[in-house]
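Tokens for chain A. Residues wanted.
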């Protein structure tokens, strides 16, 4: 190779020193061929259970309503003075992603929604097909109706 020339990584030839190489961009969502086809996100039904020291019921209800207002994906919340259950649908690539989001939900919104300082004591994440199979068979979590925030 002569001094002052460069060979592109793709072997497209050479260019003189100082000559700019054309840049190409990759559109959002494009993947390298070696990564394989992108999997579309799937729907996951999430049930998050939290528990802790007793808190005044009106404060628990107000906090859960604020969480539902801030994040309208929440289908239903049931609560008592020392525990609550939140159910919703999460769109994620796989179970690991859906579970990771669910495990962050309570802690990340504790301050903004005024949630009690409870800990997560249970998590169930199932795919849409499994959820519907359970409902059709008459077992598993009851359909999330009525939607909203309700006492146990």
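Reply:
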């Amino acid at each position: 190779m002569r001094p002052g020339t460069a060979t592109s990584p793709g072997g497209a030839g050479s260019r003189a020193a100082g000559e700019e190489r054309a840049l190409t961009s990759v559109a959002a969502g494009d993947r390298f061929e070696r990564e394989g086809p992108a999997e579309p996100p799937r729907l996951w039904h999430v049930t998050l259970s939290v528990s802790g020291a007793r808190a005044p019921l009106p404060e628990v209800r107000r906090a859960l309503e604020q969480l539902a207002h801030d994040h309208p994906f929440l289908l239903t919340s049931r609560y008592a003075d020392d525990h609550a259950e939140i159910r919703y649908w999460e769109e994620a690539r796989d179970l690991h992603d859906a579970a990771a989001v669910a495990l962050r939900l309570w802690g990340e919104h504790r301050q903004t929604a005024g949630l009690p300082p409870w800990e997560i004591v249970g998590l169930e994440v199932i795919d849409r097909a499994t959820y519907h199979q359970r409902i059709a068979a008459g077992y598993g979590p009851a359909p999330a109706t009525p939607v909203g925030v309700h006492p146990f």
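Residues 45 and 75 are 10 Å apart (CA to CA). The two ends are 77 Å apart (CA to CA).
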